[in-house]
Design brief:
256 residues; alpha/beta; Rossmann fold; 8 strands; globular
Length: 256
């Protein structure tokens, strides 16, 4: 597995792969953020695909690529909305967990142990239709070569399709809360999950994505709710969408 993949990052996620569906485990924050992520995807799919129904089958028939899908937390929610879902990850053990969980949940999801670059090669060789929606949620801050990664994302999405990113802001608050407090104090993320140098601000992401024909024009923040018992237990509540993008944020737009 080459190109955009950071081997050290993949090894860390692979070592935790049996914890993907542990709601109180190292991926609990992703579970608690998943409904907010889906809401942001729905908002943007509405404006891109002119969908009036935001119910159960909102994404019916749309080809959706979940990049860095891990154990399938987001992929399964996309499938339940009617999407034709392909989930890819550079961690084989994570893909194995995702396949097993989808099977037990009776969900048909096309999981692949593959990188974006390799998948793109296959699609170009076979002249296969590209994806309507490409999502890279909590992934771009882990890749080795962000420029190549953005190029792959762009080339995997069809013209006029939707591209969605969610990540941690490279801001003072993003670094303090998204890395040090989350990893070292609350310990809701394994220590070493994020590297400050790999974080990216919304402004920088807009400029870098535009170089590859992705026009990001819709943004949101993700903020966890806190209840008294959450604070006592050093946990986060479920996330909600907000105008505050200083820590976690989502960016979405059109592939030209």
């Amino acid at each position: 597995m080459t190109n955009t993949v950071d081997k050290k990052e993949i090894e860390q996620f692979s070592s935790l792969s049996n914890k993907w569906w542990d709601m109180s485990g190292p991926f609990s924050a992703l579970h608690k953020m998943s409904n907010a992520r889906i809401e942001f995807i729905k908002q943007n799919a509405t404006r891109v695909f002119n969908r009036d129904n935001i119910g159960t089958n909102f994404l019916d028939g749309l080809n959706c690529l979940d990049v860095g899908c891990g154990g399938g937390i987001l992929s399964e929610k996309l499938k339940r909305l009617g999407a034709i879902v392909t989930g890819i990850d550079a961690s084989k053990s994570s893909i194995d967990i995702a396949k097993e969980h989808a099977k037990n949940s009776r969900l048909e999801i096309n999981y692949k142990y593959i990188t974006t670059s390799k998948l793109l090669q296959i699609y170009e060789q076979k002249d296969v239709n590209k994806f309507d929606i490409v999502i890279a949620s909590e992934v771009i801050e882990h890749v080795y070569d962000r420029n190549k990664f953005l190029s792959d994302i762009s080339n995997l999405c069809r013209p006029g399709g939707l591209v969605v990113f969610t990540t941690i802001n490279k801001s003072l608050l993003g670094i303090i809360f998204g890395k040090y407090i989350a990893e070292d104090i609350l310990k809701i993320l394994p220590v070493g999950t994020h590297e400050v140098k790999k974080l990216i601000s919304p402004k920088s992401l807009v400029l870098e994505a535009e170089e590859h024909g992705i026009i990001l024009d819709n943004f949101t923040g993700f903020t966890p709710t806190f209840r008294f018992k959450d604070i006592i237990n050093k946990e986060l509540g479920n996330f909600k969408l907000t105008s505050n993008m200083h820590v976690n944020y989502g960016a979405a737009g059109i592939k030209l």
